[in-house]
Amino acid sequence: MKRRVAVVSGGIGGLGTAICIDLAQAGCAVVALDLPRAEAVDRFAVATAGLDIGFQPLDVTDTDACSDCVQSIQASHGALDILVNAAGITRDTTLRKMERAQWDAVLEVNLGGVFNLCQPAIEGMVARGFGRIVNISSVNGQTGQFGQANYSAAKAGMHGFTMALAREVARKGVTVNSISPGYCETAMVRAMPDDIRAGIVDKVPVGRLGRPEEIARVVRFLAAEDAGFITGANIPVNGGLYMSF
Ligand code: CAA
């Protein structure tokens, strides 16, 4: 199989690290993009030791930096075949208390970041006739969540973006899909109030939080060479928390 170049935004985060490791184990050269938080960078280096995974600092809200980053990866690695948008933040609070800055921050990272990386990456994918974009959305984009008007709007928006871009590049060998994880064992979920998290886990039919590896294996599935007929899809991975068809 051709050695594919994969780029993961939010790459040193809870889901991002598992996604980087899985793609590297599947034979990709991987570049993790994230804010250079010293502690997280160190943890990531330990977790990914020995694998073909590099780290490049990037703020996904910086449009010019995203464009420069994509160009430099294409120059150094020869291509950018797989783009996983996993950069995401929460600023949970009820709408009545939400400040405009909390709305903007979540929309700019979670949705603006997808635009900022997809736009420069898509040209090369189309020119090379192959590309896989996987956007990490959320169950809360499908259902809405109390205290997450900003996050739910951004995550639902990611899937609208996914379907629109999927149509634009479907004839060019490029697929665009989203995954909607449920509550997983990540710092983001650990940061929730304990009682609220416990109440949610009680409602998950599988009866536990998801493991980051359980999201990563779906990314690998969508990123595979032979996944070319799956596009514009959303794959829920939520332990049954939200079932739909
Ligand atoms: N459903 C219904 N009512 C709720 C509620 C809920 N989930 N949460 C709080 N309330 C009630 C409160 O009990 C309170 O009632 P009273 O006024 O009668 O006392 C009322 O709503 C208003 O509460 P507050 O405005 O004071 O809000 P709060 O500060 O208590 O809590 C919150 C707000 C912190 C956002 C809290 O609701 C919360 O943590 N919600 C969950 C958010 C969540 O799921 N985040 C997920 C983060 S991880 C992630 O996002 C990953 C992923 O993709 C899955």
Description:
This protein is 48% helix and 16% strand. By secondary structure, it is of the alpha/beta class. The chain has one domain (5-184, 213-233): NAD(P)-binding Rossmann-like Domain (Rossmann fold), CATH 3.40.50.720. The protein has a seven-stranded parallel β-sheet, with helices on both faces. Helix 4 (100-128) runs parallel beside helix 6 (149-169). The radius of gyration is 17 Å and the shape is globular. The two termini are 34 Å apart. The mean pLDDT is 98. The structure holds acetoacetyl-coenzyme A (CAA).
Essential attributes:
245 residues, alpha/beta, Rossmann fold, 7-stranded parallel β-sheet, 7 strands, 48% helix, 16% strand, binds acetoacetyl-coenzyme A
Write the layout of secondary structure elements.
Elements (H helix, E strand, L loop, with lengths): L4 E5 L4 H12 L3 E6 L3 H10 L5 E5 L5 H15 L4 E4 L14 H29 L2 E6 L2 H5 L5 H21 L4 E8 L5 H4 L3 H10 L8 H12 L10 E4 L8
Parallel strand pairs: 1-2, 1-4, 2-3, 4-5, 5-6, 6-7
The structure holds acetoacetyl-coenzyme A.
The site of acetoacetyl-coenzyme A has 19 residues, from helix 5 and helix 7.
